[in-house]
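Why does residue order matter? Because the sequence determines the fold. Keep that principle in mind as you read this record.
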Amino acid sequence: MGEFPHFYQMKTLSKLIVLLIPAISLFQGCSLFNQNEKPRELTLFHWNDFHSTNTPFLKKPQLPDTSKPYWVSGYANFSAYLDSLRNANPSNLTLFTGDEFQGSPVYAVTKGASQINLIRLLNPDVMIPGNHEFDYGDSLYFAMTDSANLPLISSNLVKKSDGSLFFPDYSWKEVNGIKIAIMGVMMDDLYRYTMPTRIGLITVEPTVPAIRKTMERVKLERGKPDLWLLLSHSGLDADQRTAKEIPELDVILSAHDHEKTNQPIRIGKTLIAEAGYRGQFIGEMKLLLPKENPDSIQFSYKLIETRAGVLKPIQPVANLVNSYEEVLGKELNQVIGELKVFWPMPEAEENGAANFITDGLIEATGADIGIVNAGGIRKPMNSGQITVRDCWELQPFSNLVIVFKLSGRELEKAISFSLLNSDTPLHFAGIELILHQHAARSFSLAKLTRNGKPLNPDQIYNIVTNNYIGQNLKRTFDLEQSQVEMSETGLIDREVVSERIKRLKIIDTVPDGRRLIIPIP
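Structure:
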């Protein structure tokens, strides 16, 4: 946490780095090439879920790893890696699978315009939007991209007005004699991850039929390609299902769930890969295709970590990033407190950051119970100084704080429903939960108490949360919006947190037993 190093204070360790020397690696595949034939090579460089990480961020290894912290990525640094990899591998495609938006104060102030300008400098060959591209509304995103000349594609984002596509449904590339049909899809359940009021122009067609429709169009217009490549902002689980339903696909490059695949997942012949998030890694997939039998593809794969200080950042990109930072930097780098413990990203287990946030919501509003969704907390926090920037990056969505009322009976039923249906785990203050874990992501409510006692089923409780949850009561809690009494507070969730940090100064919030998970065999 604290200030990031200025781009040109980072030392260049070497002009030529080891990662760019061709690595000796075994290509994997299911058949051998004709010994008299030289296979055609194609390298795919891909990244995903950059989340406006415009400046380098500190990676602090956690025990038992005792290695030193180090800085990674940032736009100018990431651009240097991408350019170097392109130069070392001329037969390449660079591919971005969505979620450039959301995650930094610069993004929030410019409502995404900063990220449109920056990704244009990266110059990807093909890209798709992610769900967070619509966080300030689909109309604003489409207005910005209409004039940006970005290589966007999508097979399943269509206009509600007339059913036509927002972007071309595929991109046809020929590299090193290899014909590649590149398709793109948005997750089927976009409506679960974006406020309904912000996607008024879009209809999302089911991914599998949309892909099949595009494949037929490709064959009609171009003929059968040597390589079917899908860019997907759906997550690894959904992409594995897609691979089973459409076995003709050769490669799926995934996004959305922030996973990193050290080696591709293989479903039949389909290779599925994802490269983490925030630009820490660039995925490199080398493919060898024989001319006589293009279905006999061999591959090698690695994730390349974009550590800062190894390559000289790209000057025009650094200039643009620094121009944005100069406007906001002084305020953002102001130290407002100190964190004494590490806060990991929240998942199902009780979490220090989630506890701090929900406790703060109750303090700020006088409500009985506080709720935050794990997906609304966007970065781990290392121990050390806390800056205003950290608060923006911890809760970048600028969600409004709202209060609604439920009886104890309704609340217990709602929490039980959410354990099976919520998009991400919910975390609470003002109540204690004992959960039974039946499988990796399957939980049931075993016990619910408030101050150690059962909830009064007839008492009305004031519940404070953010307007993302407030606008999605039906799918989160199975509550009808029109039947729930709800009021706005005029507060923004991030400001509640930053003001609490300023007041307390020293922050040491850790799990305190309010959420206990018991595995059930």
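Residues 315-332 form the longest helix (18 residues).
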